[in-house]
Amino acid sequence: MSWVVILALAGGTYALRLAGPVLRDRLSVSETVKRYLTLAAVALLAALIGTAALLDGTEFVGIARPAGVVVGAVLAWRRAPFVVVVVAAALTAALLRLAGVR
């Protein structure tokens, strides 16, 4: 059963990836639709970041993880190297948890 599901998902993935180059010249989208698709992608990404940073399942995670996300976001905004952003965010959350802040 699981091999059938894996093969079906692989086929679907291949079909979706093939649809882009095949349909590129056949479909035309207005500038308004392109703008809304871009805004929808940004909104979806923001929602994913928000739920991952603030919730664990249905419970609030506390202050340590969001504080780490804020530190990482500020450093990324200031164009710090990626390694510095990740290490500083993780270190912030770890030190707050070590200090007893949930």
TrEMBL record:
The chain crosses the membrane at residues 35-55, 83-100. Pfam families: AzlD. Keywords: Membrane, Transmembrane, Transmembrane helix. This is Branched-chain amino acid transporter.
